[in-house]
Amino acid sequence: MNNSPHDALLSWFLGPQAENADLFERLITEALRDHVFWRRNYHPEDGITIRELDKRSAGYEEAVATLTQELMGLLAELKRDVPFFSGRYLGHMAYQQTIASQVGYFAAMLYNPNNVSPEAAPVTTRLEQEVAQQMAEMVGYRRDEAWGHLTSGGTVANFEALWIARNVLYLPVAVVGAAQSLGLDLEVRLPDGSKTDIGQLDLSQLLNIANRDVLDLWERSWQVAPREDMARALAQHSLATAGYQDYGRRLAAEYGDALPDSVVLVAATAHYSWKKIVRALGIGSNQLIYVPVDGNYRMDPEALWDRLKALHARRTPVLACISVCGTTEESAVDRLDRVLEVRARAGQELGMTFHLHSDACYGGYAASVIRGPDGVRRTGQEIRDALGEDWPSDEWVRSMVALADADSISIDPHKLGYIPYPAGAILLKDRRARELVAVDPPYLAPAGQAEGTEQDYLGRFIFEGSKPGAAAAAVWLSHKVLPLDESGYGYLICRTVVGARRLYRALARYDFAPFRIILLPEPDINIVCYLLHHPLLESLEAVNALNEGVYQVMSVSAKADPEYIITRTRFQTPMYDRAVDPLLEQLGVATPAEWTAAGKEGLVVLRSTVMDPFLADPPPGPDHISGFLDALADAGAVSLARLIGSSPV
To answer: How far apart are CA 47 and CA 550, in angstroms?
Structure first.
């Protein structure tokens, strides 16, 4: 454990002015030299392929000159990129990466491992498994039951979660068909705790069995019949084999009562990728149902209960419910503990259950805040006392603790893990669920393992094929340097929260006259949202134009380099119905009904993501908060002048 996490923090990044350049260069050089040593000592009897004399040929020198010249051009182009490293950047969820992750990525990149199989990456596949276990422990999963792996990002991680959830949902139907064809009797537990023969259940009951009970049923299926017979019978009756169209016809014929299509419930603040995912899986975006959020932009548990009752009345199965831990717009953390209570109530009162997934792509690493170095959970009061802030609330802590009861979780190390792209992750509470999507390409089977036996190589269970082992090395080394507890990542994320709250309070105090700042509620993590208003503006369209103009002045798309960089989002109907009512009341330019009628016009909201841990420190360091406030006020004046000059307000 670090005696002084703040002192250690100073070594974790290259620094906004590359203050740790000597350290970074030494480590990168060490990684390169070690790789060179490995090459030179791997069968040195093979001799030299590229001779010194070859390096003096005209063709060689011309090729080197071309490479050098083009590299200089590339380096010049890259300086036009986004300065994520600077305290002046308050835009998207990006910052400089940890030195550990950059060095780990560089070192492994030289070996170019492909983590699809140990045969292609014997070292980094092991590191990836360790990384998944570390994250599983961070969220409270049992190490001996959970499983996970890295992906290219949150979209693929969420895709896999829903892919697996769908297979879990329909597995009991396949088991019934397999059991009937093989003449077997199998018992299953229902949401109310009772047990019955699976062949006695109707279609609605078959599609409302809890995940663990489904997987217990799966396990028993292999014990009551020869493996080859059961595999063949399950395949004949599975959705994965038949496809949606044929499967729907089969269910209608066999049960004589085709149910409505299963739906996916998502928090209204869920990432836009969920719409892509349901389309790609053939579920359809019409089956994506948004659950309203409260005034703090968290899923409303009462609204969820109302949705479930309405779906139950129509006998509509729920494939999955997606709760969010760290929304991309506001960093809001759903009350997952209360969502779990709603699911338990639905099981007892409605006989209804579903896969519960936590989209923690942004906020997952914040679970490290509640972990002590010994793994013991910290209380909200202990964290508040250490920070000297009134954050986090006890409710926030309970939400993080509740991650341990989600069926699956997606986390992006390349967000609050400060890891180079690409690095997402999917975690399963019950590792058995991965078997429902397993595919066995024979050329990937590890040497010495009999064909047809369980193979624990990643390619068997994942959607992606080739995947960079360098990403696993990056995450692994960063976790070694920054433990997933209060002394490492927990401390780092706490510093960003303190910085975000400093910014929030400064926005509230600053004199923007004649403008007025309108703030969203204080963030659950570290994204601050706000918008400007002016007395001359009398319509929602004008308010949106003003804030869009501010964004244009302070975004990287501006013609001149902005002094400070922010981003913006647009709250739209129906996803943000009711949640924007307090903002509309403060603006006084539109009623909720008028806002809803405006449709795509929505409400433009400015957004500052504080991933810079040094923003928490007051002067004598660079006072970027004061500088940002002045820049925001100036941008408001510029935007208003353009707006007045272009059209009446």
So the answer is: 63
